[in-house]
Design a protein that fits this description.
By secondary structure, the chain is mainly alpha-helical. It has a single domain, classed as Di-copper center containing domain from catechol oxidase (di-copper center containing domain from catechol oxidase, Orthogonal Bundle). Helix content is about 35%, strand content about 5%. The protein contains 11 helices and 6 strands. A two-stranded parallel sheet has the order 1-6. Strands 2-3 form a two-stranded antiparallel sheet. A two-stranded antiparallel ribbon has the order 4-5. The radius of gyration is 19 Å and the shape is globular. It binds copper (II) ion. The site of copper (II) ion (CU) has 3 residues, from loops. This is Di-copper centre-containing protein. Pfam families: Tyrosinase. Keywords: Copper, Metal-binding, Signal.
Length: about 375
Amino acid sequence: MLFQTKFAALLGFAASAVFAMPDFPGGICTSPLIRKEWRTLTTAEKSSYINAVKCLHTKPGVLAGHPSHDGVTTRYEDFLSEHKLQTPLIHWVGHFLAWHRLMIVRYEKALREECAYNGAQPYWDWSLDALRSNFTESPIFDPVTGFGTNGRWDPDEPHLGPGLTGGGCIYNGPFKDWRIGVMPGAATGMQDPKGCIARDISPIFPQMHLRPDQVAAVNSQETFWDFELYVNGRSMNPEEFGMHIGGHASINGNMSNPYTSPTDPLFYMHHTNLDRVWWNWQKHDSSYRLFETGGTLGPRVMETYNGPPIPGNSTLTTPISLGFLGGDQYSVMAGQVHDIQGRNRKVPGLHPSIKGILCYDYADPPTQ
Ligand SMILES: [Cu+2]
């Protein structure tokens, strides 16, 4: 019951806030932030992004001391904890991509406004690395200009799949000394992680789920439902992970925990790429795909959650929110984040005064 009560509370919060939301300034996005692939950033741009992420982990968290946000000390952990809190409501649902789009936009804003970052949130196009003979040679794992590599070998970890050599705390890169206080906790039924960023990089899952031919195939999915199944996977069977879980399982460690995966800053690089994959699909034929949605209101795969089923479908008017992390401005309807350039389009089912709230675009990845 707690599960449903929590859901109703979130719905109530979002529904009351959405009509009070001020219009998107000007209603038109005139100069979108351009999100770029990690390896196309200059060394200076990479370091300014990493420094901003590190900065977030030095600022005090606004959710610190809040009864629903155990373990939060820093601003970085605010985002992690909100994701943990909402996990049973925002995964394996039709608004999964919409909710994560909203989260990334808020994170990008925090980097820029609170940590003096003047770029856009970058993305990691893992399809450029999926077929490498050694996946860990991707520039994303560079210990100096990237996010660091694997965790130390930990024989006590349940290594997911063959060929895994880590499982412990990362030992190089800019985040190797990070301590994280937000744990999954007993209510999630999942093991508490180590309080650091742990990884157990997989050589198999990138080849299984993140290949360029799979990215190409995504755009040929005609309906949102087929697209969603392709990206988000059909089940927790490793053969059926899809790109979303496949990306998480390629890194493992914290990234394999559905509640606390934003412990690892790579979470944002992976999810921004998923957001780009969605945008590419949406704009392929924007006349009908832009406001296509579907899927369930509650998780369609329940292996990782213990709540009762939530009936109904996800729609453009499904409320999504970042709770206390986002406030009124980020308590919106899913349809409001379908257009990443926040254009004042008529969103089916939404009141005409309700507009989009986003203003960014994607630069293409480099060609191989
Ligand atoms: Cu998530």
